[in-house]
């Protein structure tokens, strides 16, 4: 089986994945920030603020309903026609749908039509995101040197963190504007800026070559005609395993969306302060993710992922408690430790852990479908948590318990997988892979 022989293609694939993911998730995350701070006030009735917050979080989560369906479609295209076609399509669709959100009328202008249009645009974002990470991960994994697959695939997730940093940095000065300006026109600026970052991402990806292993399979006419059917015939247990392991994403959305809303709207902590916590945590993650991935290339994917999941199950408690106490020092320290360092262990390793469960014929479909079903709960975690949130000083406890349970489930699921860090590319996804490892 052909392996990348030089360093140019793997590095170019990693760079393209990094920049593409940054662009995609800049668009995706500006929605999350707006859903927490702005959309409840402009896209829903002001009569019941709590109901408006729950509805706004639901529009954030609705993209995750579209993602499993998008995963089936884009997985089929990527496994039959190539990874590059999927990556070009997802980039353009995300940019279009994000720009449209910035153009939407508000509730005061068109009433119930405003949230309906918002949901439609969000669904398009979800379809795009469904194929982005799986496509970028497959592209990078298949270009990577055999003994550095986790390191190279981690750049996809580093790009995701960069997108979150960029989205948050854009919102920090806008959040400092007077409330009237913020709600009337300023909130639209981050959505219009998506056109700029999409152009950059498209320019980088347009010259990226298709992966050697996919080209070889295409030449031999070994690509699957119906990847979805082949996947569930041979790898349904791996898909199920990824679904439960992907529940670790609950930690991310609780940290970046729910706790932001809880801190600002319930505990009256300054918006800029909490956005700064998000930025600092993700700046730390930019270094932590590849570091954890390098460790996974030396000791295996499973121990690193499991450490991250169990660490998050514990750290979510003191972090939300610190917010409930308004202790800014602890909020910064625990936020960086939770999201920037410990969560990065699971986040940086899952692209290799999941991708190595499948062979080339169904890799993109397997990763896309498995992750997007699991991510669906992550997407609705802020909505669930808003409903679980009680009153009084300990009202946050059910939210922390919910996050802990999902993180433990993710750790258990990962523990049942085969360790593949020493398995050759040509043996990945085969029944004998665990024996080879």
Defining traits:
437 residues, mainly alpha, Growth Hormone, Chain: A, 20 helices, globular, disordered N terminus, disordered C terminus
Can you put this structure into words, describing what you see?
The protein has 437 residues and is mainly α. The chain has a single domain (8-436), classed as MFS general substrate transporter like domains (Growth Hormone, Chain: A, Up-down Bundle), CATH 1.20.1250. It has 20 helices and no strands. The chain has helices at residues 8-37, 39-42, 49-81, 83-103, 107-110, 113-143, 149-175, 179-184, 189-192, 194-205, 212-219, 227-234, 236-245, 249-266, 271-299, 301-325, 328-355, 363-388, 397-415, 433-436. Helix 1 (8-37) runs antiparallel to helix 6. The radius of gyration is 21 Å and the shape is globular.
Quick overview of this protein structure:
This protein has 437 residues and is mostly helical.
Task: Kindly identify the CATH topology.
Answer: Growth Hormone, Chain: A
Q: Which CATH class? A: Mainly Alpha
Measured on Cα atoms, how large is the radius of gyration? Answer: 21 Å
Q: Beta-strand level of the residues, as a percent range?
A: under 5%
Large-scale geometry? globular
Helix content: over 70%
The assigned CATH architecture is Up-down Bundle
Q: How many structural domains in the coordinates?
A: 1
Give the integer mean of the pLDDT values: 86
